Amino acid sequence: MRTALLISAAIASLSLMACSQKTEDHAGAAADQAGAATASAAQDTAANANAAAANTAAATDKAADSTAAAADKAAQNTSDAVGAAERKTDAAADAAAKTH
């Protein structure tokens, strides 16, 4: 009877060891998967940050181009207005000279 108990205890002990090994294997695999997921997320985050930086740079360039175009247009409008004012001043001076 004692022998049967010892054999049963030994079998139970071996079963627990096998179960523990499976648990360790599963835990190791889970840790590996978690590490891979973390690395993948870090790579995705870096790629998204790079894309955002590129988009920001493109938007900044476009805004600078638009600002430059608006400044050019404003300068042209100012030049046109000055020209028109000079012509009107000359015409008014000519008209005043003719009346005296």
TrEMBL record:
According to the UniProt entry, which residue ranges have a biased composition of type Low complexity?
28-81
* Signal peptide residues on this chain, from the entry's feature table: 1-18
Disordered: annotated span? 22-100
Keywords of this protein's UniProt record, alphabetized?
A: Signal
Domain of life here? Answer: Bacteria
Protein's name according to its UniProt entry: Lipoprotein
From what organism does this protein derive? Answer: Caulobacter rhizosphaerae
